[in-house]
């Protein structure tokens, strides 16, 4: 093991130890425009239980028909949160809903504390303990099912731009899809010049705002995590290119996970981790405030020890199939289904490329029958000199069937050979020897 590998291993193990020792914190929920965050006095943020938070967010997101809401409880929540007529008037403005879920933050309630004007959470959700462990599971499940809730209740077309970015729209927006495809859909994200240009622009902008800090500049330059750079650039693209991208009824849902990756690589107290949080919070704050009349935004910040791995999919196989709107209190457990390679059928090559992230760069979208789907190809690793086969609707899963078949047939062949060898040995042992050899083996009597 070389020195570099040893250092990487030590860093990874130390981050794991830190992750175990991280104290659980409250989940923080922020709401933009910031007027809504002023519903409580500074330093006096309401703390809700998990079930109360689900009721409030379901009502705010407009998906309450999927839940048995107790409206007396909602009235009590309004009193707890201190909501007034100002917020109600703000909510009446038709704007694109934006739901951002940020994972991997050590202190969620202070996520926006480094901004010029500290932003207080709209409310917090009580930190996890032994008593509310099941409730937290229910809350995470609620977050996972937000996209399927919207698809269940409204006549919306889902656009899965990537695993973390989902947009639900009343009508298919070719302008947004083409823009996204031009930036992120064709080339590998690690070598995409346009994506890199967005990242460099973000760094320069942050440098200007923190020009007095040479430490900040060095810390930013140390950020090389590809998942963070890609995720931040994509988020900036979505929030900054508002014109012609969205309708008022659209829903933008984003699950940001790359901060967790940086935490695991660098540790809790590293400048890189701290600077990554600052850049992300700065980008969200600037973009949402700049477009406050376009977006009705909710930011849910999760602590390090609780992560939303992915959304549950309510996969529309054929975009022509529409579900009737406003289904009353439909069971969520029956609404989500996992997509498989057999049900990924797209009407156009472009929608196939967008929905599968260009077949995860492990295949091509080809017309099969009346629709397009991914045809996976093998990839060769020059370092390990090994070939990897891929499968799944987006070619993201390793296909182990080749190795399994080789192992299976090799085992069968060796078993047959072993059985045949044993039978051959028995048959040779049971054969009668020729007469000459038989006579030679007869014991002669010796005369004493």
UniProtKB/TrEMBL annotation:
State the UniProt keywords alphabetically.
Membrane, Signal, Transmembrane, Transmembrane helix
| Name this protein carries in UniProt | Vacuolar sorting protein Vps3844 C-terminal domain-containing protein
Q: Which organism is it from?
A: Pachysolen tannophilus NRRL Y-2460
* Signal sequence residues: 1-19
Q: Which domain of life is it from?
A: Eukaryota
**Bilayer-crossing regions:** 406-426
Q: Which Pfam families match?
A: Vps3844_C (PF12955)
**Vacuolar sorting protein Vps3844 C-terminal domain location, by residue?**
345-439
Q: Which GO terms describe its cellular component?
A: endoplasmic reticulum
> What InterPro entries does this protein map onto?
Archenteron_Induction-Rel, Vps3844_C
């Amino acid at each position: 093991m070389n020195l570099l590998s040893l250092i990487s291993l030590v860093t990874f193990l130390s981050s794991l130890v830190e992750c175990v020792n991280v104290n659980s914190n409250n989940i923080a929920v922020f709401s933009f425009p910031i007027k809504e965050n002023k519903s409580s006095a500074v330093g006096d943020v309401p703390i809700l239980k998990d079930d109360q938070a689900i009721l409030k967010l379901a009502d705010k997101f407009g998906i309450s028909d999927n839940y048995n809401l107790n409206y007396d409880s909602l009235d009590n929540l309004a009193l707890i949160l201190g909501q007034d007529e100002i917020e109600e008037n703000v909510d009446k403005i038709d704007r694109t809903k934006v739901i951002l879920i940020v994972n991997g933050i050590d202190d969620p309630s202070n996520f926006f504390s480094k901004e010029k004007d500290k932003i207080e959470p709209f409310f917090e959700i009580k930190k996890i303990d032994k008593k509310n462990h099941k409730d937290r599971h229910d809350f995470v499940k609620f977050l996972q099912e937000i996209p399927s809730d919207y698809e269940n209740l409204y006549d919306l077309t889902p656009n899965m731009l990537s695993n973390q970015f989902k947009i639900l729209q009343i009508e298919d927006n070719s302008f947004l899809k083409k823009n996204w495809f031009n930036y992120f859909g064709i080339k590998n994200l690690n070598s995409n010049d346009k994506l890199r240009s967005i990242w460099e622009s973000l760094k320069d902008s942050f440098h200007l705002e923190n020009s007095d800090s040479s430490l900040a500049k060095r810390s930013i330059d140390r950020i090389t995590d590809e998942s963070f750079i890609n995720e931040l650039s994509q988020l900036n693209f979505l929030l900054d290119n508002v014109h012609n991208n969205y309708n008022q009824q659209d829903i933008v849902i984003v699950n940001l996970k790359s901060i967790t990756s940086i935490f695991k690589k660098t540790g809790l107290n590293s400048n890189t981790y701290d600077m990554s949080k600052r850049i992300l919070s700065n980008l969200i704050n600037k973009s949402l405030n700049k477009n406050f009349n376009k977006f009705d935004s909710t930011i849910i910040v999760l602590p390090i020890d609780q992560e939303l791995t992915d959304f549950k999919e309510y996969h529309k196989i054929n975009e022509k199939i529409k579900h009737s709107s406003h289904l009353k209190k439909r069971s969520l457990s029956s609404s989500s289904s996992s997509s498989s390679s057999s049900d990924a059928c797209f009407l156009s090559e472009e929608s196939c490329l967008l929905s599968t992230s260009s077949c995860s760069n492990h295949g091509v979208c080809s017309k099969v029958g009346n629709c397009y789907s991914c045809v996976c190809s093998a990839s060769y690793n020059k370092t390990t000199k090994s070939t990897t086969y891929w499968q799944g609707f987006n070619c993201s899963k390793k296909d182990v069937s080749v190795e399994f078949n080789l192992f299976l047939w090799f085992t069968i062949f060796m078993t047959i050979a072993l059985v045949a060898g044993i039978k051959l040995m028995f048959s040779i042992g049971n054969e009668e020897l020729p007469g000459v050899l038989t006579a030679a083996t007869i014991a002669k009597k010796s005369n004493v």
